[in-house]
Amino acid sequence: MSKRDYYEVLGVGRSAGDQEVKSAYRKLALQYHPDRNPGDKAAEEKFKEAAEAYSVLADADKRARYDRFGHAGVGGAASGPGGFDPTVFTGFEDILGGLGDIFGFGDVFGGGRRRGPQRGADLRYDLEITFEQSATGTETAIQIPRQETCEPCHGTGAAPGSAPTPCPQCRGTGQLRYQQGFFTVARTCGQCRGSGKIVSKPCTTCHGAGRVEQQRKLTVKIPAGIATGQRMRLNGEGEAGAQGGPSGDLYVVIHVQEHTFFHRDGNDLHCEIPLNFTTLALGGEITVPLVDGTETMKVPTGTETGTTFRLRGKGMPDVGGRGRGDLLVTVKALTPRKLSKEQRRLLEELARVLPAQEFEPTPREEGGDGRGLFDKVKDIFG
After folding, report:
1. What fold characterizes domain 263-335?
2. CATH tag, 6-80
3. pLDDT, tens digit, for every residue of 211-221?
4. For residue 26, what are the CA distances in angstroms to 6, 30, 83, 91, 117?
5. Which residues contact 95 (CB under 8 A, 6 or more apart)?
6. Sign of the C-alpha dihedral computed for residues 67, 68, 73 and 78 taken in this order
7. pTM beyond cutoff 0.85
8. Domain-wise residue ranges, the chain
9. Contact 283/301 with Cβ under 8 angstroms?
10. Which CATH architecture fits 118-156+210-258?
């Protein structure tokens, strides 16, 4: 059976631009995608037919040969070296990923890759600090286990005095390439596992791995104002990379201990201070603890219990260095549990001149029943 014209397959004219060709192919690939047509062999063939057409029309050189010679210009001896260029399918990973079995082989579109230098893994370290350390900043030492470059072999994996040799099977490329119809398939070389090198005499320290585990002691500077859950990145302090690749990073995750007096909300701090009711009634000055000292605060005459005062700039420092939060002080009336005879006498004398209970009369509301708060409370409790 003769092949259909590639322009006809994609449904575009011969003057179609690159974007029009790409859009037409995406539409067909989505329409005939195997996931949308499970078990439909006809749809599978159309899916592959569209891919073949696009692989030619998306390649400027092959499209020019096809326009001049037709299918003969892009098949057989006239096609030039090596099938299609997988890079023409860049941008279609969401459609084509993992479809090797559809085309009858394992790795599609450059799936086999040489294992060259690889970046080392990132590491995480959970560090607990005190509330005071988070407020003022600190410097502490931590110890982490990590993979580091083997010093005797300098990361090559070969014993001192020897060196890795190019893999004879893939000739040092790390890949084996096969021709499958109009596809060129790249597979990872099984003999060197993609490294392109063979270590015939492994290093006795790392046993050919090129890396060994070490306990490394590091100094970490904690900035003032850091909070629970925030993390710091130490560049290059993760595990060493393979095949000479760069090291990963170390992430230090902070956990701040709870404080017995202060409660943090963002950069603001909250606290409660118990005061004798005489201080609330008469007013006066009190001493308020701070995270880094004390502060004198004035309590106005007639302050009610539960009143909150704001001391600006007396909270936690901002971890980014943009000022400080506020300290919110809530005053609470303190009821003494033990009284001296003199204290009791004075309180009893005060009690004789103060009513035991006070209710503010409720103004008569228009259309209401005219009863005050006291009457309504009596109704509630019978």
Report:
1. HSP40/DNAj peptide-binding domain (2.60.260)
2. 1.10.287.110
3. 888 899 999 99
4. 15, 6, 21, 10, 34
5. 26, 29, 30, 33
6. negative
7. no
8. 6-80, 118-156+210-258, 263-335
9. yes
10. Sandwich (2.60)
